[in-house]
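Weekly puzzle thread! Below is a chain. First person to post its structure in token form gets bragging rights.
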Amino acid sequence: MGFRHNNVLHANHFHKDWQRRVRTWFDQPGRKLRRRNARKVKAAKLGVRPLTLLRPAVRGQTVRYNRKLREGRGFTLAELKEAGINRKEARGIGIVVDHRRRNLSEEGKQLNIERLNAYKARLIVFPKKAGKPKKGDSTSDDLQAETTRTNLPIPDPYVHEAPRKITDEERSFEAYRTLRISRADARYEGIRKVRAAKKEEEEANKKK
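Winning reply:
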């Protein structure tokens, strides 16, 4: 620390009790084990229910991330209606509902309707009393079926093509040149229309 000119000297206090203000993480491994055990206990309490709730597949925000599919907050009321599921009933069978979300594309809506239908086909609702099943509970045949606790995965957004040879037409195609020409055509379309109309008008005047 340097001193220059005729200024007041610093009165730094270096003898503070800093040990009391230090945060240590020596309990991190113990916490990790405690969280893991808590997850096991919670999973055991859930019985045969899925470990996570069913959520919709949505696109990420902004141009950077909208090519990716991720889990959203909840299904829209329109998606539930198309799938034939009541919104109050949905919460009881592990489906999350988001009344604020709106469907902006038919493709995204259809994807989530298919997701709901696939979930419905796999769903087994055990009756509270074995002897008295209520409306919507699974039948005896379904109750004997194998159960899984993993939820439906997010579908792959890309349609993967098999490898193939590049055709001569594709090889000779000039992408950059085509883009520049189409951009120029779009830019000068209005001016060219005005010129063509002016020329026709001049020719019509000459004939008179």
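Puzzle host: Confirmed. Bonus trivia for everyone else. The two ends are 95 Å apart (CA to CA).
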